[in-house]
Design a protein that fits this description.
It contains twelve helices and no strands. By secondary structure, the protein is mainly α.
Length: 211
Amino acid sequence: MSGLLDLINSPMGKQLISGVAKETGQPENKTADILSMAMPLLVGAMKKNASDTQGAAGLMEALNSKHNGGILDDLGGLFGGGVDSGLKQDGAGILGHVLGSKQAVVENALSKQTGVDSSAISEILKIAAPIIMGYLGRQASQGKVSDSSGLTSLLGSMLGGQPRQNQSLITSLIDADGDGSVLDDVAGMVLGNSKSKKGGLGGLLGGIFGK
């Protein structure tokens, strides 16, 4: 099963970065940095949410229907005419479900790390979230994933093999000044490190994801 590293480095990933950058008016290198940090955090959050039966069932239902991967069939068309408001509303719903009340905290931390305004970060994530879900849906279909165990395994495989540059970005994000306890569990999933980072955004992730 292909991971996020494969997606970022693939022609589809480059098309995603270019399209999101054009849509939001941000430089491609900044957009790539934001997505490199945000995508594994979002997938890690989904893995955390899928660890209980109800969360796994809800995610499986979404992947088998609305987010089955069809969005990936024409990314050129998606970005070519401008992203419609329906996609952004869908993305906002996904982010709200995954990050809950801590969404703004995560966006502000990404803003501090990258120097991109938090409102632009929000727009980038709204566009990227349905595409990430579509990619996950396609991987689930190809892997014939049908239960919570298979889903957890899929999400874990997608988090594997984060490149050193992405690891440093994520670590910097987790070490950023923050309030509360949000990213510890997800950081462990993304970086393969069972040790929790204390304070800052490291503390932040545990609170978001129910630690």
